[in-house]
Amino acid sequence: MLSLFATGHRAATSAPLPGAVERECTARAHLLPVGAEAVLTSVARVTNPALALRLRELGLREGATLTIGNKTAGGGRVVTVDGCRYALDVATLASLDVQR
Description:
The protein is an alpha+beta fold. It has helices at residues 49-57, 90-94, and strands at 27-28, 37-42, 65-71, 77-81, 84-88, 97-99. A hairpin with a 5-residue loop joins strand 3 (65-71) and strand 4. The radius of gyration is 16 Å and the shape is globular. The protein starts with 26 loop residues before the first strand and ends with a strand. Strands 1-6-2-3-4-5 form a 6-stranded antiparallel beta sheet. The chain has one domain: Ferrous iron transport protein A (FeoA) (SH3 type barrels), CATH 2.30.30. It is built from 2 helices and 6 strands; from the N terminus they run E-E-H-E-E-E-H-E.
């Protein structure tokens, strides 16, 4: 049997470690309504390294403010970042963690 400390997990009631940055992921980008603004907290769920790099090159990196636009034909969304609009498929949007 593995203990919680052996796996690196802490109990939910414990205080955060000193210097630790606590990020709360409130949603995934594909679940946000049209017109919602959110701050991108992580692209770590993107499993393809080339896609993750390309998203960062386009400005979709941690700390960027996203505005969710209309749905596209395949179920994706148009996303606005720093005045630029990008059409992203639903799988890519589902891998983006955002905070509202």
